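hey m, so remember when u said the tokens were messed up on ur end? i reran from scratch. heres the input so u can diff it against urs
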Amino acid sequence: MQPKNVWQAMSSPGFLLSWWPWRSVVYLVSGAVTGSFFFVLIVLMAVAGGVLAVVLVGLPLLVALALAGLPVARVERLRLRLVDPEPAPDPHREPVVPGLRPWLTVRLRERATWRELGYALLFAGLLWPVDALVVAFALLVPVSMVATPLLMATVGDGQEAKVLKEWTVTDWPTVFGVSLLGLVLLALGAYALGVAAGARAGLTRLLIAARDVELGERVVELARSRVRLVDAFEAERRRIERDLHDGAQQRLVALSVTLGLARLDAPPGPLADQLARAQEQAGSALGELRELIHGIHPQVLADYGLQAAVADAADRTAVPVDVTFDVPGRLPRAVESAAYLVVCEALANIDRHSGAGRAEVGGGHRDGRLFLEVRDDGRGGADPGGGSGLTGLADRVSVLDGRLSLSSPPGGPTLLRVEIPCEWSQSTDRAHRSA
């Protein structure tokens, strides 16, 4: 099994003979080089921007300084592949609108940008000198000790050699002993380089490619997008309802009236009978269209709110329904629509499957939450996953941070409960009246 990163490579017996020690060296050396370069660049930008800010010329430099973490993080994500081949994800979002200003707005509002700026300052001020010191002590010191016999044979004319420029050796047995000690230190240094490179890569991944932070941001954005989709869906339902109500329904009414007038003018006979049948079919189509419009988005919900719509749904149910539901005013449209659909689906299931003799719809709004309960005295045993439609409604309620629970033991009774966080306010009422 091939090691996936330097930590796994160090646990294998062939680490010293593999490429991983050299990859660790390249990673640390490149860190020292790029870190020193970014140190000079950041210092120059900070000084120039601060001095020229008084005449507004330095403001673009200060903005560029705030974005200095972007190129640093991009280079660091590439360098990570030396010791950890697993890709480091880029946490930045692409702006919806192209252009420099939208790009700057998005970047300056992202937490990832400021995390990367913090990492760039840490990298330029502290990390690259540490990389250089680790390489110097773990690699250069052992190599200079291993090279002691060569130094004595060349520079020292076979008479003496300086070890680390600190002490002098004059005999060959000592020289070879120092060289052997250097080999041992070189092997230990290879592991030290691996540890330093692995720790350094882990720190880098934590600061500029943290999966939990990125995942949290994506979850928040996903939740917001789901809410936006629900709002857009509700707006589209209302548009379709208005188009059918003001368009197709009015044409069918006009057609029915025209057929009725034509029927009155026609003499008794086959033509009058055909006109009567046509008028009857137009009336049936009009009734079906009204039921369809009511199912898409009932006018009573749009005009009078959830309480009136629940009472209307109860009146349209074959099973007698007691309504004790009470809300102080209008709630957000998405909440009203979701709660109304839950009531309609629950009452439809009671009609079709429960065998109940009576049902009850209750609830209200308190403590910033909408509470809704639908119960019946039927046979029970309802299964949300059995095609009742409640699974889709539970998903819709969850988009609004709500909860849907069902209790339906065999023999009954069945209780469906919904809780949706929402706030009632006079501004919500005004928004509904102006819509």
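this time it looks ok to me. The CA atoms of residues 279 and 332 lie 41 Å apart. if urs says something different then somethings off w ur setup not the seq
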